[in-house]
Amino acid sequence: MKKSLQIGGAFVGIIVGAGFASGQEIVLYFTSYGFQGIYGALLATVGFAFVGMCIAQLSAKLQTTSHKDMIYHMAGRSLGLVMDCLLSLFLFGVSVIMFAGAGATLHQMFGLPSWLGSICMMILTIVTLLLDVKSIVNIIALATPYLLFIVSMIAVYALTTMDLTFSELAIIAQRAHSNTNSWWVTSLLYMSFNIGVCFSLLTVMCGSVRNKKTAGIGGILGGLLLGLLILLTNLALLAKMNLIVGLDVPMLALANHIHPIIGLLMAISLLGMIYNTAVGMLYSFMVRFFQPHKTSFTVAVVFVGGIGFLLSFIGFTTLVAKLYAAMGYVGLVLVIFVVCTWLREKQFDN
């Protein structure tokens, strides 16, 4: 059970990065749909738990060492190459978003220049990548309980101090963000996008687990924890929608409304989750092309990290809106391959 909890905690820690913990993703994908966003959150929870279990069990069975092993097993040589390239590019893109998210957080909280937060996160990420994979997984898993506690506190405050009714707040949310997709389509795209985010590190992490059942339970627990965080964050943001419209980091604004100390704790939590995702994404990207602990790996990490820092100047909100939307469809293809492969393997096992 300890190993399953570690897998579940790391699963959450990888996904809950700048966009999620800041509230920016939740506003775009759930809160902006009003009451329907709650149904979307429940649908995403089921998807996370089931697909997370599939990936974990397949990785344990194949003893994967990188996402490449799983991709080529599921999609074959030709299509696997395309998926491999897209996923690798995706990993780097999310790393850039994490650097930008660190800059946005420090700017909103302390008024510091955005570039300062971005470069600090870049340096911290590069230093961490020089550790071994077990240390990285342990670091990522530790931050999850802390975030759950902070988000729960903010949600209780928001729900008990509402200024307007949910019906009035839902109208504000829907007017603030125009959505072209149905709530269930957006929910599935959000789930599939985030499966793409965690896929690489999850395959590496669960590939070292010998017991398929242990790995599968970890995937389910991680999915359920993610769903709980989505629901709590969505309710908190909807309850205070009149106060957070247009903000880059809405959850930080809500925390500051409670008390500056809570705001500071939230900022620390947010930076911790940004760090988790930045480390997980950049590590997964680098091990796809370079062997850890080699001189070439160190040089490449510094170079790629520097490029990521420069690209972070595009802006946090812009990056979240553009890249996440595009990669949701790529992730959906990945989810279809995962589920079909799991069902096929399940049939052979029986």
Automatic annotation (TrEMBL):
In terms of superkingdom, the source organism counts as Bacteria
| Transmembrane parts of this sequence | 39-60, 81-106, 112-131, 138-159, 183-205, 217-238, 258-285, 297-317, 323-343
User: Any idea which UniProt keywords this protein has?
Assistant: Membrane, Transmembrane, Transmembrane helix
The record's Gene3D superfamilies line, in alphabetical order, gives: Amino acid/polyamine transporter I
KW Coiled coil (keyword) present: no
InterPro entries referenced in this protein's UniProt entry, alphabetically? YkvI-like
Query: What is the name attached to this protein's record?
Result: Membrane protein
